[in-house]
Every structure is written in C-alpha cells, then in structure tokens.
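Operator note (shift B, R.M.): manual run for AraC family transcriptional regulator requested after the automated queue skipped it. Running by hand, logging everything below so the morning shift can see what happened. Input copied straight from the record, untouched. If output looks odd, do not overwrite the archive copy; leave it for review.
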Amino acid sequence: MDGQRLRAWRPPVPGIAEVLHARFVTHAYPLHTHDAWTLLVVDDGAIRYDLDRHGHGAVTDQVTLLPPDVPHDGRAATPGGFVKRVLYLDRDVVGPELTGAAVDHPALADPLLRRRVAQLHQVLDGPGDELHAESRLALVVDRIRGHLGAPAQRDPAPPGKLARDLRDLLDAHVTSGLTLDDAAARLGAHPTHLVRAFTAQFGLPPHAYLIGRRVDRARALLLAGQPAAGVAAEAGFYDQAHLTRTFRRYLGTTPAKFGAGAARRTDTPPPAL
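Run finished. Output pasted below as returned.
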C-alpha cells in the first residue's frame, strides 16, 4: 500500500457530509466531481490538481476549496506523497452562488482560516461535541464566504438580546442539547452572529457554556449519591468516556473519585455524644 492511510466517517453535525483523513504517496485521483463542497488542508507534502481544466496546487499553509459539480483530479506533487484532511460540506452550506468565485480562486492563503479548519477537525475527531463543531463550522464558512466576495450576514436583533435568548435556550436543553441551526431558526438569527453575540456578551462560546452546565449537573448528581456509571446520560454527555474526559479537564479528577467523597460522608456514622 506504499504507506497509504485512510480514515473516513460521517459526523452527526449538520452540514458536514463526510470527514476524510488520508496519506497517499503514489495514488492519483482520476478526473471526477462531488455533489458537495470539498474543504481541504494539507498537513505534509503538496498536491497538484486540475480544476475546470486549469492547474493548481495545494500546500500546507493554505486552505483549498473545490465547489460541487466541477471536475477535478489530484496527485502528489512531492516524492514523499501528501497527508490531507478533508471536509465535504453540503452544497447549501457555502452557497451555489459562489461556485464561480471558488473556481477562480480555490486556494485561500489565510492563516486564521487554516487554523480554524484544523481546530474543527480536532473537534470532529470525537463524539459528544457537536455544538462545538457547529460553532467552529459557522465561523469557518463565514470567513470562506468573505473570501469569495459574499455580502456579510447581518441580523436585526440586538446582540445582547440574542445572547440572553440563546442562553435561555441552552439552559432549557442542558440534557437534550440542540443544534446551532435549530437555535438560529428559533431565534431568527444567523448561526455565526449567534456565536459571536453570545461570546461577546458572556465571555465564552455557546458550546463551552453548555458543557459547563452539564458538568454542574453531573456534580450535583454525584454529590446526591448517584453512581458515576449512570450520571453521563442524565447530565447530557454522549457516554461515560465523554463524561470522564470532560470531568478530568474541568476538575482534574474522575466522576467516580469526585462522587466517592459524598458516599463516604453518607456512610460515616454520626459522632458519639
């Protein structure tokens, strides 16, 4: 397989049809099209490709965006091959009206965008952080649309009210959760504006606020004597591993050890008079 590696999955995140991480050395993609936007970053090596019969290159300090339905191919531009990470985005995420601009300028030399795309891949690598992934995707798409000449999205509602209304929604869905698109539809605001308004108002993004509320709920359940094995679902975490991982990050210990103190306190007999 000459060092080839490939991993692909479909995350439960609206707008992302597929995530693909791969390393190729000699493999060359034939001419083909996708029905989705191809958002590509190269982590090592370089890629040569033709898009709509024009030659281009993809390198490590750029973000490459290929529009749906436009023929392209791909091959290694260096002897050692290349390592890439790809997001396939539903065609309405970026917008079909920007196809022409993307064909003309598929390479985006933007360090902040490059960093945000890499961060989005990190979030997508594990389940349970879908709101976080949606928030990062909204910021990535907003910046891409700006590069392609799309007008800025504007919302008429005051940012402070939007932020407070979103906080109320998050408080009402601590366990069940909600998608950013659902929140945006309920509040009549663009997803990117929601993320920015909330962060400006409360000093942290919506996903971080929600995780904090879930940690608080888990702590209360553990201190009430509930076994750690049953707390994850009731507090809104994806599974026990997600709860444990988050608990370690926030509190430096595991849920079981945190709850053990409450159990010992309950089991200790009262002092003799």
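Quick read of the result: The longest helix spans residues 130-147. The two ends are 77 Å apart (CA to CA).
Leaving this for review. - R.M.
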